[in-house]
Amino acid sequence: MTYLKGKSIFLRALEPSDIDFLFAVENDVSLWHISQTMQPFSRHILEAYIESAKSDIYEAKQLRLVICEIVSNNLCGFIDLYDFDPRNNRAGVGIVVAESFRKKGIASEALELLITYAFEFLNLFQLYACVEENNQASLTLFSKFGFEKTGVRKQWNWTTTGFQDEIFLQLIQHNHV
């Protein structure tokens, strides 16, 4: 599907062979405050999650895609549509890129592919993202694609440095260039 293939990466569904990568990302304690995770995930739980990922977005209300390099087929990260709301035609967007693949344009390419897929294939009206105020890389990424800051949740997320504000960003389809 051309919606999910870019110049250097492609997005694909989760496969059982992704378990080691998923296990490493989901159990990375440095990311837990973003996903509101409170305890480690077992392989068994994540294997069941991969198995249930066969459901379509209308049933599961989410879609997790693996970001892969075209040339090497290396797994680079994940990009998600979550809290899918078909009545109001919107979904949240989440993205995580493995440390060794950051600052290479992979997140930008993945987000661009996901936006195109969401608006042109799923016919969503809007996408949104929730980003901690100190996550400048993510704020810059979403802003680059036209997401606008529409709200602030004060002292919303607890981190090791204390409570952090969370920025609410939205991209309305007709504002997308």
UniProtKB/TrEMBL annotation:
Domain N-acetyltransferase: 9-170
InterPro entries: Acyl_CoA_acyltransferase, GNAT_dom
KW Transferase (keyword) present: yes
Transmembrane segments: none
Tagged with keyword Transferase: yes
GO MF annotations in UniProt: acyltransferase activity, transferring groups other than amino-acyl groups
Keyword annotations: Transferase
Protein name (Swiss-Prot/TrEMBL): GNAT family N-acetyltransferase
UniProt organism field: Flavobacterium aurantiibacter
